Every structure is written in structure tokens, then in C-alpha cells.
Amino acid sequence: MVYKSCVVSGGRGKAVVTSVGMATELGKISHAVSTPKTEKTPLQKRMVHLAYLLFIGAIILALVIFAVNGFNIDSNTVSYAVSVAVAIIPECLVAVVTVTMSAGIRRMSHKAVIVRKLHALESLGSVSNICSDKTGTITQGKMMVTHIWSHGQIYGVSGVGIIPEGDIYPMDSAQTTTQTPTGSQRANTATDTILNEALLCGCVASNASIQKDANDIWFGNGDPTEIALVTVAHKAGSKRHELIRTEAAPSELIHSMRTPVHSVVPDMSTRETQLMSVIRQQTGSYPVLQFFGELPFESEVKRMSTFYLCNLPASSLTPSGSAGAASSDSEVSLVQMYSKGALETVLPICTNVWQTDASNNLKLQPMSDSVKKELDSIAEDFAAQGLRVLALASRVLSQEEMGSIGSKLDSLPEHRNDFEKDLNLLGLVGLLDPPRPRSAAAVSVCRKAGITVHMATGDHPATATAIAKMVGILPQDRDSIVLEQNGSVVVPVSELVMHARDFDALTHEQIDAMVELPRVLARCSPSTKVNLVEALHRRDRRVAMTGDGVNDAAAL
Hints:
Layout: H1 25-34, H2 42-68, H3 75-87, H4 93-109, H5 118-125, E1 129-133, H6 134-138, E2 144-150, E3 153-157, E4 168-170, H7 193-204, E5 209-212, E6 218-221, H8 224-235, H9 240-243, E7 244-245, H10 250-254, E8 259-260, H11 268-283, E9 289-298, E10 303-313, E11 331-341, H12 343-346, E12 350-356, E13 362-366, H13 369-384, E14 387-396, H14 399-404, H15 416-419, E15 423-432, H16 439-448, E16 452-456, H17 461-471, E17 480-483, E18 489-492, E19 497-499, H18 500-504, H19 508-512, E20 520-522, H20 526-538, E21 543-546
Parallel strand pairs: 1-16, 1-21, 7-9, 8-11, 12-15, 16-20, 19-20
Antiparallel strand pairs: 2-3, 2-15, 3-4, 5-6, 9-10, 10-11, 11-14, 12-13, 14-15, 17-18
């Protein structure tokens, strides 16, 4: 489903309009924003209370004057009583409050804060809790690949931002942070075939690109996650614009297919191993990949796949004179599928994982339960460091699939389950969305002022917890915190992190019975953020909400 106001930064497709105007999802958010539940600020409540007291005081004074005159009410008595009643009302109070608030707004402007409404300033001064989005608010919203796992080895990646400059180097198992490697420590990406194939997979299973502008400054087009994958591939020498050709339409490529590679190398395992080995040996770099089709990313399946046609010399795959050898000048065709996505969705469709033996030869290892457990452990370790984890996998389509894909080009997404199966896992990548430089300092100032900060994000709980510890929302060196406002109650840190699914399943009564509301909510939807704000309101807390996405609008 494509919602109104979505910006298409990449991909291909056709859309059918199902709703317009206020009936769209954006329209529903607009309605929720335009009809908020207004609530008076503490100052406004005190002013209303004062007005009632003054009114009652004026009535009492008028009655006293009437009583002194024995309730002999004439025009002079009424005039005197009204004068006293009016005199008790401070005429300059509104002006004094307005001038004071204006002075506060002026002071805030010197601190680069724009306040549109006077009462917002007073509300800001009485805030007790802040609810914040993570991506782009607490963090920079700029993804960088910092860790890679491939064939049993963890690699670190140096460099900054989307500038394709940096090194890829092996890391010790105990090493948790990346650092600038020395020359002897750098990975030899020219000979590490599996690592290179993993980086290629991340690069071509995307629609992003990076390039320099007129001022020779690098910039990216597309999704930040895909931009990060393209950038790290550039660091290893796999440049997307040199790898992919899109001039020919997929329907035209069908007619340009040569002899299928399967007729030269029938065995699947041998074929995959040979293809992995010979491509760089033959060309010194990857051959041109001709775009063939795409299974776009879907939130339900959390993965994306692309198809590329590749032609190779037949002689490079079959030793001269062996059975089934083709002439040295003939070519064979293959359609390679590259997939990327969340580990929990890619792993179930993988039947093998690429590894190397003691002699550093390539081999396909069956995806056993022990291998899956090892991969889950690595993913948890990455997530605990605040990294977003993606799995990369590929395979060569079978001869039957190559023969039938032409008839399915116009409806490939409908045949996703026919193709996304029997993949060979290439590796895992860990992407870091680093916190903003001032985030930790801002959280520290809030804590000293007695303000509690909550983080609501759509990321994995382990990733959200790691970022929360980096900026100080959760303590790094303690397993529990003491809540002084609740009579020195000790609360474990683990209870302050909650999955949105579990939080949304609770009733209002169950949420209100919690000793402390979660400081970190993971895998949030817009409604979850609203639930958190409303729960704080029920506890008579003054709440400020901050975020930069449309999914934050309802809570804002």
C-alpha cells in the first residue's frame, strides 16, 4: 500500500487509487492533528482559579457594603459596591503576564528556539517528561556500515558518512568498536571472494546510488540504509554505476540469453562454487550485470530481491576437454538473484551458508540449527552495540526458473514465494545510525532538571537499548535505577525496555498500575506513541513530544 504524500526514491511499479483526501492514511493523521485534545496549562489553570477567587471576593465585599447600610439599597450604595468590586480586579494582570511571557520568548530566541504561541513557553517550563523519536531525532538519521560478518569472520569498517573512503579489516571476537587499521590489518578484499560477493549483494539489491555534486561533495540518492550498503561496496571497489546496465528492457534481455549455465555445470553446488570463484579471476572485476527484475521491499516480509542477467565465457566454468565443455568463444547465461532483509525473514529461506575450509577453498555448508543459532547470536551482539542488522543472500536461478521468469516479469511480486527460496547466505551487515553529538548532553541536562526522557522507536529492542545507553536514557553501568519520586523504589533496567506489541496489549488499568512507564519502547507504531503520551497524562505529568516523521504527528 502506497500512502498519500509518499516520496518514491527508487523502485518500479503501478498504483491504483483506493482513497483520496481525508480518507487516506495521511488524511487520518491530519484529522487527528487538527482536532487535538486541548488542555489548559498550569498557569492558565491558576489564572482561572484566581478569577474565581476574585469574583467571590467581589461578591462578598458587595454584600458587606449592603449589610453595613442595613440592606437599604439606593443608587449611591450600589455605585459604591460596584466600585469596590471592580477595584479588587487587577486590571494590569493580563498585560503583566503577556509582557513577562514575551520577555521569555525573546530570551528563548537567543538560544535558537522559536516559540509560536505564548502558552507553549509556559508549558515547556513545566515539562516533567519528554517523549522522543529515535531515528533522525536522537540519532543523525545517517546510516553507516560498521560491522560485517562473512564466512565465520567479523570485519570492521572505517570511514565517515557516505564518503566511500575507508578500510575493511578483520576484528577480534572481543573487539566491539571499529578503529583505523594498519596496513597489515586490512582485509584483502581483492581475494576474499565471499566478502566481496556479500558487499556486491548489498550494493545491487537496492535502488540507491552515491555520486559527487558540482562542488565535488559526495551525496546519496535513495533510502539511507541502501546508501550505506552502496557506500561500503565502493570501499571494496564494487562501484554500482560500473556494475549495472539498465539500457535494455527485461523483455528484450530474454531474447539475448545464451546457453544456460546449467547445461555446462549441472551440479548446483559445483556450479555455485565455480561461479563464485571464476568471476573475478576471469575479468579482474565483476562483469556487467544487466538488470532483469525486482521483488520490492514489503513491510510484511521485510526483504527485497533483485534479478540480474550475466553472460560468462563457457570455458571459464568447464576445464578444457572435460565432459560437457563448450567452445572457448561461446558464452553461457545465468540469472543471479540477490536478496537483503531482516535476519528473521531471510534466514528461513536460506538452505546453505557460504564458508571456507582449512585450505581456504569455497564451500556451501547446509543451514543447520547450530549454524542458525550462531547467526542469531552474532545478530544479537550487533544489535546490542546499537546496530541495525541485515542479512545478505544470493543464488543462481534454476534452468526451469530461467525459462519461466519471462512470463512472470509483469507480475513478479505475485510470485515472490516461487523465487525467494533455497538461498545461500553470504553474510550479515551491522549498520549504525550514530547519535547526534548533542543528544547525550541534552539528556544529561534534562535529568539534572528532573525531567524523564522516554524513547519510542521502530527499531529492534536491543538496538534501541544500546542507543538509549549511549545517550544516557538508560544507565550503562547499572542493572537497576532508584525512583526517588516513588519512595526510593528500585526498578531493574530490563523492565524499562518494552516491545510495543506488549505495551499495546495492556489495558489502561494495567499500564497505570506499572511502577514506572518504560523509558524505551521498541517496534513502535504511531498509535503506540499516542498510548505512551496518554499514559503519562493520566499520571498528571506534563509531557513534551519531539519527532521529525509523519508517524510522530499524532503524538505531537
